[in-house]
Amino acid sequence: MIHEKYQLAVPAAPEVALAILKDVEGMDAWLRPHLPRWPKITASTWVVERTDDGDPLLVAAKTSALGISDETLTAYRWTPDGVTTTLRSSRVLRSSQSTYAIEETAAGTSLMRVEVSADVKIRLPRILERRMESVQRDFATALQRAFVAEAERRRRR
Questions:
Q1: Within a 13 Å sphere around the CA of 68, how many CA atoms are in the beta-carbon half?
Q2: Entry's Pfam families (predicted)?
Q3: Which CATH number do you get for residue 144?
Q4: What kind and span of H or E run contains 21?
Q5: pLDDT per position as a tens digit, 77-103
Q6: pLDDT tens digits, residue range 16-28?
Q7: Residue 65 bridge partners (DSSP)
Q8: CB 97 within 8 Å of CB 76
Q9: 8-state DSSP, 40
Q10: CA gap 48, 13 in Å, rounded
């Protein structure tokens, strides 16, 4: 089981940070430049179903890393200050849940608290399990850098 918690200072107002979370289809464009060169991680994500307000409700993704490919379906539950995602189906993952909670700082920027957990269905050799944990940490770091860069880009518009 992988379980990560971190906080991210976002150089933008909470509504901008929330808009970035809702930009599921644009994620590849703002995330890709920040991903590590190795292992190669590929992903394509699209919205299957939206709320009446147009927010992503059900999201599909195709991913590949370390020679392991997967197709997932994830449910999104939006709140005024963030989102919780819950895995609905996957060939590789038994479960996965992420919570992104955004709060405004005194400076008018945002602090995002992130909690991510995932459990793999198949038993992997310990060396590959450690490598997957490392890839997950690298991905989380890349996501943090990408999110901050995208917030800065949107703030300057």
A1: 15
A2: Polyketide_cyc2
A3: 3.30.530.20
A4: helix 14-22
A5: 999 999 999 999 999 899 999 999 999
A6: 999 999 999 998 8
A7: 68
A8: no
A9: -
A10: 28
Torsion of CA 18, 34, 139, 89, to 10 degrees: 60
Q: Do the Cβ atoms of 145 and 49 come closer than 8 Å?
A: no
Using CA atoms of 85, 73, 95, 91 in order, give the dihedral in degrees to the nearest 10. Answer: -160
* Cα–Cα separations (whole angstroms), residue 35 to 25, 42, 91, 125, 148: 17, 10, 23, 25, 14
- Expressed as residue numbers, the domain containing 62 is 2-156
Name 64's bridge partners. 42, 69
What is the pLDDT averaged over residues 133-140? Answer: 74
Domain count for the chain, please give it: 1
Pairing of strands 42-50, 56-65: antiparallel
* Token pair listed for 84: 């919780």
Give me the percent of the chain exceeding a pLDDT of 90: 53
Cβ(117)–Cβ(1) under 8 Å? yes
Residues 6 or more apart in contact with residue 63 via CB below 8 angstroms: 41, 42, 43, 69, 70, 71, 72
Type of residue found at 94: R
